[in-house]
UniProtKB/TrEMBL annotation:
InterPro entries: Bact_TGase-like, Papain-like_cys_pep_sf, TgpA-like_C, TgpA_N, Transglutaminase-like. This is DUF3488 domain-containing protein. It comes from the Bacteria. The lineage of its organism: Bacteria, Pseudomonadati, Planctomycetota, Planctomycetia, Pirellulales. Keywords: Membrane, Transmembrane, Transmembrane helix. SMART domains: TGc (SM00460). The chain crosses the membrane at residues 32-47, 59-76, 82-99, 106-124, 130-151, 218-236, 682-709.
Length: 825
């Protein structure tokens, strides 16, 4: 296949890979890159091979201008939309160029556009798929550059092909179905003007570039380039402590987790449809570190919302300034605990509280020895935060560790001890003011939820009374939870607005009375207000429920789609569920209620063990490693994962060798073992004499070793040349020959070629009748040198073994010649 055709195919493949990089992870936008990929391969046949469709340069410029105008209106949207508009523009220009006759200019433009596509793709998507696609892209790019170099140099040395190349720019305005042979210029569509290598390049180069040797060299170059890139990427220091690749390529602001100090009912459905990674959680035993297996979906608490604003259909936290925070303390004894290690996605920005960055965790949480002292706990609201008084733009930590109680099953798993730093009066005020108020209409005259209020009264009335004639608040709360979950009257849906039947009602009232369809926040909101109508303090809690368990990495991958809302109601110690002793919760407890019916299979179910599931777990683990050690590789992670282990393993073991204190201790102990005790003065006569004796011994030992080595080296060198002849088959043996001859008085002039020099030495030996035994070995060594250096040959094993013997013969003869000269003088 001719070089030009290889170059056309390589450029089309490069353009296709650049378009595919844009297509990865772009959802609906992926259609256009895929069409561009098809156009790249189609253009090779219809334009480069058949010559059916070829655009003139003027027509192509006009089409490019239309593409720019067509993409201009997309630049008025958000930042991500601007990047998508740039990506579309690059694809439009690429398609226009692909259907032009290929010239040096067109090849350069296509290569540059493909490189720009890689840059835009990196800003849009930095997943592991992007990294894997970069490997074939780099290989194709290097191949394209090599072929382009050959093509350009061949045109440079052939005037006829150069003239045909320049004539391509003067085509008619548009050619459609012109067929082969209609192009008098001799380029695309004309097979008579092949750009060949034979006759244009030296024979050895044409053989290399026209065979598989060039592609083998490209593979080697790609491998070493990849290795060098990896080494430089991880070794080059990052001076910006907050910098990371993902943030520098457009992800600096990150994506919100969806939870702020307020949340709207209409936003929750959008959050639940997002597949963006938030954090990974590994649960292990505290002592052994063994993976903790669980069959239930853990709740990762974020924040609690206490006040509903009817005008905005929004829940808010309330006045955080009234609630004090405290440091996390070690866990109290007497129960089982589990260690949770949470690694966060640094491109996903966690929200902030008044105390710092909001953290997600199973709750209540306690400190381990690895827990950061900057983590604070708002025990009243049940909110964990990373304190950041000095840096207001502090991001969430890359990883944090907490200890939590382990109640996987039973009633206790839904109970949390009530802990708060408030006085009894302040806590009762919090319950009455924030957690038992039912919102009223805009005139503060009537309730917004008459149907909800009636339903709550009916459910509470149906609860059986206890021995004292009162209905248990825990029984009422659990009955209301069962009404949503088990009675079958309500359905789960992320698309709420189409189901609204009466827009004049509050969405929560309309949900309970009319359409009875909603997502988790509708269920939680309805249950919280129903509990408040019965004077049971209740609040809405938002966070994440469950996660996708990765059997390969042994962790739970928590994503945005696992966002969840549930309810907590406060129960006094005398109102706890049946079977719970009041003395276990002397200050009361928070009862977790989840009124949302099952909307999907449990994401925590173990893998079925199929090959496909194993592959998905493996790919997710690779994605996680790519995100941790490539995209989010910043100064702190580089120091912790690379520099610190390197110094601990390589530098610290040798610290004693450069430590003055360690050497002083060594000498002092050595002398004391010999019965010599040094004083603490800065000068000691005994120590000085001892030091001089040691130095004298070292000098004598060095001289003895040097004398022995000097006398034995010629014999060792000959033995080495005899034992390891394979190491002398390279062209370097010729330069050893020159050095031996130089010692005997034959110096090579700068103007002499190796053959001219050896011929002169042989002629001199014959005229002077000296060194006759080395004439034939020198001729053989010279011939082998030329075969290796200029013929690209590899010597046979017998020849490789003979090199060492021939060099030994030459060395012996030159030594004899030197001795004769010295004797003659």
């Amino acid at each position: 296949m001719r070089v030009e055709r290889l170059l056309q195919i390589s450029v089309a493949l490069l353009a296709a890979l650049g378009s595919l990089l844009l297509a990865i992870g772009q959802g609906g936008f992926a259609t256009l890159p895929l069409m561009a990929t098809m156009a790249a391969f189609l253009s090779v046949y219809v334009t480069d091979i058949r010559g059916w469709i070829t655009l003139n340069r003027n027509l192509a410029n006009f089409a490019a201008l239309i593409a720019v105008l067509f993409s201009f209106f997309d630049f008025w949207d958000a930042n991500d939309a601007k990047l998508v508009a740039i990506a579309k523009l690059l694809i439009y220009l690429q398609i226009v160029l692909l259907f032009q006759p290929k010239t040096i200019r067109v090849y350069w433009h296509l290569a540059v556009l493909s490189l720009l596509q890689v840059v835009v793709a990196a800003a849009l998507n930095m997943g592991v798929s992007f990294g894997l696609m970069l490997i074939p892209y780099s290989l194709t790019a290097l191949t394209t550059l090599c072929l382009f170099f050959i093509f350009r140099e061949t045109l440079r040395v052939d005037p006829e092909l150069r003239a045909a190349h320049d004539a391509v720019e003067n085509r008619p305005l548009f050619t459609l179905f012109g067929g082969k042979g209609t192009d008098s210029s001799g380029m695309a569509g004309n097979p008579t003007a092949d750009v060949t290598l034979v006759g244009q390049l030296p024979a050895n180069l044409s053989t290399v570039f026209s065979s598989g040797k060039m592609f083998a060299q490209v593979l080697k170059m790609s491998f070493f380039t990849l290795c060098a890139t990896v080494i430089l990427f991880y070794s080059f220091p990052r001076f910006d402590e907050g910098g990371a690749l993902g943030q520098s390529l457009g992800g600096g602001l990150g994506t919100q987790t969806g939870f702020k100090d307020q949340i709207s009912l209409n936003e929750m459905g959008q959050i639940l449809q997002s597949d963006k990674f938030v954090m990974r959680v590994r649960l292990t035993e505290v002592d052994s570190g063994k993976l903790k297996d669980t069959e239930y979906e853990p709740y990762f608490r974020g924040t609690s919302l206490s006040t509903y604003i009817p005008n905005n259909k929004t829940w808010i936290v309330g006045n955080l300034r009234e609630y004090r925070v405290s440091e996390i303390k070690p866990p109290p004894p007497g129960q089982e605990y589990v260690r949770q290690t949470i690694a966060t996605n640094q491109n996903m920005r966690f929200d902030r509280t008044n105390d710092g960055v909001l953290l997600f965790s199973m709750y209540p949480a306690y400190a381990s020895k690895n827990t950061s002292p900057d983590i604070v706990d708002n025990q009243t609201l049940g909110i964990l935060s990373m304190s950041s008084d000095t840096r207001t733009n502090e991001r969430q930590p890359e990883e944090y560790e907490l200890i939590v109680p382990w109640y996987p099953f039973g009633t206790k798993s839904n109970l949390r001890p009530c802990r708060h730093p408030l006085s009894d009066r302040e806590f009762r005020s919090y319950l009455t003011r924030d957690l038992t108020q039912v919102p009223l209409d805009k005139d503060f005259a009537n309730t917004l939820f008459p149907g909800l209020w009636k339903l709550a009264n009916d459910l509470a009335t149906n609860v059986t009374t206890g021995e004292n004639g009162e209905r248990s608040q825990a029984a009422i709360a659990q009955r209301m939870e069962r009404y949503f979950v088990n009675d079958g009257n309500y359905t789960y849906s992320l698309h709420v607005l189409p189901h609204l039947k009466n827009t004049r009602l509050d969405p929560i009232e309309d949900f309970v009375v009319n359409h009875k369809t909603g997502h988790c926040e509708f269920f939680a909101s309805a249950l919280a207000i129903m509990l408040r109508t019965q004077d049971i303090p209740a609040r809405v809690v938002v966070g994440y429920k469950g996660g996708e368990f990765n059997s390969f990495g042994k962790y739970y991958a928590v994503k945005q789609k696992h966002a969840h809302a549930w309810v907590e109601c406060y129960l006094r110690s005398d109102q706890l569920p049946a079977g719970v002793k009041p003395e276990e919760f002397p200050n009361g407890a928070w009862l977790r209620l989840d009124p949302t019916p099952a909307s999907r299979l449990s994401p925590n179910r173990q893998s079925t063990g199929t090959i496909f599931d194993t592959f998905l777990d493996w790919f997710d683990y690779v994605e996680l490693a790519w995100r941790d050690y490539v995209v989010d590789m910043n100064y702190d992670r580089q120091t912790k994962d690379i520099y610190k282990p390197l110094t601990d393993n390589l530098v610290k073991p040798f610290e004693g060798w450069i430590s003055r204190e360690q050497w002083m201790k060594f000498f002092r102990n050595t002398l004391e073992s010999m019965g010599i005790h040094l004083s603490d003065e800065w000068f000691s006569g005994i120590a000085s004499i001892f030091t001089m004796l040691i130095l004298l011994v070292l000098v004598v030992f060095f001289e003895i070793c040097r004398t022995i080595l000097r006398h034995a080296w010629p014999r060792l060198r000959r033995l080495f040349a005899k034992w390891f002849p394979a190491s002398t088959h390279r062209a370097g043996f010729y330069f050893k020959l020159e050095r031996m001859l130089a010692k005997a008085g034959w110096q090579r002039d700068k103007s002499d070629t190796p053959r001219e020099f050896i011929d002169r030495v042989i002629s001199d030996c014959r005229s002077r009748n000296i060194g006759g035994e080395m004439v034939s070995p020198m001729s053989e060594l010279l011939d082998w040198y030329y075969q290796i250096r200029f013929g690209g040959r590899t010597l046979a094993p017998q020849q490789q073994e003979a090199i060492g013997e021939y060099l030994s013969v030459v060395e012996q003869q030159t030594t004899v010649i030197r001795q004769k000269k010295a004797f003659a003088k």
